[in-house]
Amino acid sequence: MKPRVVIARRVFPAVIERLQTRFDVDANDADEVWPQAQLIQRLQGATGVLITSGERIDAPLLAACPALRAVCSMAVGHDNIDIAACSARGVLVSNAPGVLTETTADFGFALMMAAARRIGEAERFLRRGEWSRWGVDLFAGGDVHGSTLGVLGMGRIGQALARRGALGFGMAVRYHNRSRLPADMEAALGGARWVSLNDLLRQADHLVIVVPYSPSTHHLIGEAELGQMKSTATLTHIARGGVVDDAALAAALREGRIAAAALDVFEGEPAVHADLLALPNVVLTPHMASASAATRLAMAHLAADNLLAALGGPGGGSQAGQPPPTALNAAERVAHGKQVI
Ligand code: GLV
């Protein structure tokens, strides 16, 4: 009998077919997150699950699904998974880093430019039929080229943004991260310079937030931080809802304390704070920074690679018998004395 795995969200048929070669697959064909009780019910007897950033994998779920051995996410962010609880039960966790870096950085850059050059605002104006003449300062925004790019969180996506800014747009790059990059990497990013968070906020013309969400980054950007930014600055957020205090941001935008913002992620999404929806100077998109067709397919295949490597058994395709390519807790599971898959 093939092991049973669950695909918790609608994904691509090619990915389902690959998994069906080794597993008995129960796939959610609705494009909706199952309520937690339903997810637990579907996971009964399943040894693996392919998830997105929308499903919550926590200790109560793990306790209710004792057969589970692998949780493989097609997202890079993993704040929805209690990794320590998974490790303690010997459950492998993987995410999908790398494959979405450039696509996500492209989108972050597009959002930053849309905010700086007021593209959303101008397009809505035109569609409303309000454009009657050329105007010398009609939708005059801030320049991107030659300005200072501030990157908060200098992981893979932060570096890809810095490269675009420095090498493509002649921007001076400042960044803040827990750890500083080696000097040769900073040089390869056009001389990117580590600064304190306060200096980043004060110096950036365009701040882009790419720091993962965790209790320590909850509301990392709130009223006090926004208050340090230039009144001409923009803020672009492509990380996770909760890193920015959305109500404080809306107030800063409304009062002209910063010029504009562009947001792809929100606290409590898919709900969006009503104050943000009412403002002209913010570009809003529905959590889609990694959404090129090719990249979303690659993300789903990478999650499948991890499931196959973790559970596929001997002869389970090219991944079986190999370590899961992007496991997050291989060492921790061993440390808990649990059987390694
Ligand atoms: C998307 O937000 C991801 O984490 O991949």
Relevant terms:
single chain, 341 residues, alpha/beta, 7-stranded parallel β-sheet, 5-stranded parallel β-sheet, 14 helices, binds glyoxylic acid
* Biggest β-sheet strands, sense, barrel: 7 strands, parallel
Poorly predicted ranges: none
Q: Which hetero ligands occur in this complex?
A: glyoxylic acid
Q: State the distance separating the first and last CA atoms.
A: 18 Å
- One letter per element, helices H and strands E, the order comes to EHEHEHEHEHHEHEHEHEHEHEHEHH
Annotation field: number of helices: 14
Instruction: Kindly estimate the percentage of residues that lie in beta strands according to DSSP.
Output: 5-15%
Rg from Cα: 22 Å
Mind explaining what this structure looks like?
The chain is an alpha/beta fold. 35% of the residues lie in helices and 13% in strands. The protein has a seven-stranded parallel beta sheet with strand order 8-7-6-9-10-11-12, sandwiched between helices. A five-stranded parallel beta sheet has the order 2-1-3-4-5. It is globular, with a radius of gyration of 22 Å. The two termini are 18 Å apart. The model has no long low-confidence stretch (mean pLDDT 95). The structure holds glyoxylic acid. The site of glyoxylic acid has 6 residues, from loops.
